[in-house]
Design the sequence.
């Protein structure tokens, strides 16, 4: 054996080792940030939720926004893995396992945000002991739990199928169940808000369809970004054909989402009066305008980049467009949540624990640093889970 | 109509906006700092106790706002654990602090701005020791609370504290399902309104106009 050959033989394992080493560093860093986040949460529990900027008249904030956002992000993976199988279409085989795993991580984070927002997480068992099934929150807890279990079972079945231990038929049945649960999860999350008669910003029948379309946008965009990064690092083989089909699909989803938003705004704004109109006005020209126009402008830009054949071929531009789309959906979620609390039904001056009268639609709620810190901790937990899964589970496409 | 439907009638023509009912509620129920279950709202100009309009055409009146004890409450449906519930026997909407998980779904569901309060931290009291009625359940950190129609006083056959305290007798308490009751009679004789009738919650609090 020549010395050159020996060197090459040594270099190859060394490269894998360094990749694994990189994984370890990533695990250590994200794990440490997640632990710090847990520390902040413990501090929040001991001092009380008073350390957030939430108050009686703006009683939900960044945590519930992130809950909505991560329920939405979990959509993409499961949908692109299941839809082709259910309808017998050409799928995205090379990425489907990673996509489902990504879904699972996002669902876990969504559930985590609910727990973080809760005043009494130690009373979670009340949800089982005293379940009240007229509450959309109760529906959501049932559906999200089912969704998480179905996603895990589906991923396991896919891994087994590769070893020939699960039939294609069983997979198809599971895909159908998973797809129905996914549609339900977004609808039910929307109904937590959409069924509330006291909140003009939320109380629209279009909310569930909009949650599904926004979920498709942010979920597919996240999957696309993760896939592009994994292709760059060599974890996945480059697959331009599959990438550009995903990009095209994302472009269509963005347009559908913008269309639904337009329908909602037109219906609410057309009377030129009333609370619904105030909501529209605050989006177009008021306190929400910066978020709203970033979302709309960014959406249009993203759709152009994603649907154009030339830009579609550039991984960089597609990743940029996908990031803009995700940011747009985050803004959409945030303004929806804030908007629900922004308009008061009984708008007279009085003593209160906060501003009593805010017809001027000045934003009442600004998340504190602690809230952002906890959010960063939870997102780091997601990155930790993702890295761990990519290293420990057989998520690479079968040769 | 067998059950009673307890509620209040508040005379906006008599109310002078003195906040005595709000204070009586705060003391009786030992409310923690910053918490108000009953508040006085000025229907008028830009600020408390200011009239609307241009002199000499000025108008100002008051309403007091607390839990409306709705016949069709939005909060009861929304609570995932049944911690907020409507009593079958008298229609009072009430909270079980020990059940509440602190999700604040009811705060999102209630259309009547600001009638529910959440204890964002360990309840503190200005005077450093509990005051008010001994039978009021202890306030808990991270739970939602609101007007109970003084359930502890009802249990003894007494009227809510705010009714008793009103110096101009603008507040009346009784059973709307009893046609002979004072509140039913007042609604027969006087013009009246409920808050946000379009929400179809049918509040058990009426305002005489």
Sequence:
């Amino acid at each position: 054996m020549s010395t050159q050959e020996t060197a090459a033989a040594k270099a190859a394992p060394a490269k894998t080792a360094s990749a694994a080493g990189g994984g370890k560093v990533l695990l250590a860093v994200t794990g440490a940030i997640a632990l710090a986040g847990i520390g902040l949460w413990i501090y929040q529990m001991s001092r009380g939720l008073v350390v957030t900027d939430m108050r009686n008249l703006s009683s939900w904030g960044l945590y519930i926004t992130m809950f909505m956002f991560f329920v939405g992000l979990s959509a993409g993976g499961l949908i692109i893995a299941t839809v082709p199988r259910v309808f017998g279409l050409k799928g995205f085989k090379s990425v489907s396992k990673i996509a489902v795993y990504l879904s699972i991580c996002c669902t876990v984070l969504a559930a985590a945000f609910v727990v973080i927002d809760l005043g009494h997480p130690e009373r979670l068992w009340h949800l089982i002991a005293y379940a009240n099934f007229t509450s959309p929150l109760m529906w959501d807890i049932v559906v999200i739990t089912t969704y998480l279990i179905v996603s895990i079972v589906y991923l396991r079945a896919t891994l087994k199928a590769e070893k020939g231990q699960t039939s294609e038929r069983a997979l198809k049945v599971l895909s159908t169940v998973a797809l129905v649960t996914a549609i339900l999860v977004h609808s039910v999350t929307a109904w937590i808000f959409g069924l509330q008669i006291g909140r003009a910003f939320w109380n629209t029948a279009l909310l569930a369809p909009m949650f599904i379309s926004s979920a498709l946008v942010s979920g597919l965009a996240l999957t696309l970004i993760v896939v592009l990064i994994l292709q760059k690092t060599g974890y996945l083989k480059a697959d331009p054909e599959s990438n550009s089909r995903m990009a095209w699909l994302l472009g269509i989803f963005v347009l559908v989402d913008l269309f639904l938003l337009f329908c909602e705004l037109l219906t609410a704004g057309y009377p030129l009066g009333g609370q619904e109109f105030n909501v529209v006005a605050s989006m177009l020209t008021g306190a929400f305008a910066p978020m709203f126009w970033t979302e709309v402008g960014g959406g249009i830009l993203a759709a152009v980049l994603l649907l154009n054949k030339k830009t579609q071929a550039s991984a960089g531009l597609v990743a940029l467009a996908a990031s803009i789309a995700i940011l747009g959906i985050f803004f959409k979620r945030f303004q929806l949540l804030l908007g629900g609390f922004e308009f008061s039904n009984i708008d007279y001056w009085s003593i209160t624990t906060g501003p009593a009268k805010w017809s001027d639609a000045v934003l009442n709620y600004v998340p504190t640093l602690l809230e952002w810190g906890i959010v960063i901790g939870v997102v780091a937990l997601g990155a930790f889970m993702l890295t761990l899964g990519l290293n420990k589970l057989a998520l690479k496409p079968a040769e | 109509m067998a059950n009673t439907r307890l509620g209040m009638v508040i005379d906006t023509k008599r109310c002078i906006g003195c906040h005595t009912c709000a204070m009586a509620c705060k003391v009786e129920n030992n409310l923690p700092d910053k918490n108000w279950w009953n508040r006085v709202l000025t229907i008028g100009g830009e600020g408390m106790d200011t009239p609307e309009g241009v002199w000499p055409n000025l108008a100002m009146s008051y309403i007091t706002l607390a839990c409306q004890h709705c016949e069709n409450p939005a909060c009861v449906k929304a609570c995932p654990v049944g911690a907020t519930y409507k009593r079958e026997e008298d229609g009072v909407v009430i909270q079980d602090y020990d059940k509440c998980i602190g999700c604040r779904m009811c705060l999102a569901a209630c259309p009547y701005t600001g009638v529910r309060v959440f204890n964002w931290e360990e309840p503190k009291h200005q005077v450093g020791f509990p005051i008010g009625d001994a039978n009021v359940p202890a306030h808990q950190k991270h739970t939602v609370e609101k007007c109970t129609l003084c359930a502890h006083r009802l249990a003894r056959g007494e009227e809510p504290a705010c009714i008793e305290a009103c110096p101009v007798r603008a507040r009346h308490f009784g059973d709307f399902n009893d046609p002979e009751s004072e509140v039913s009679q007042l609604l027969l004789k006087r013009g009246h309104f409920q808050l946000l009738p379009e929400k179809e919650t049918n509040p058990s609090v009426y305002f005489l106009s």
About this structure: Residues 25-392 of chain A form a domain with the Formate dehydrogenase/DMSO reductase fold fold (CATH 1.20.1630.10). The two ends of chain A are 30 Å apart (CA to CA). Chain A touches chain B through 48 residues (CB under 8 Å). Residues 73 and 222 of chain A are 7 Å apart (CA to CA).
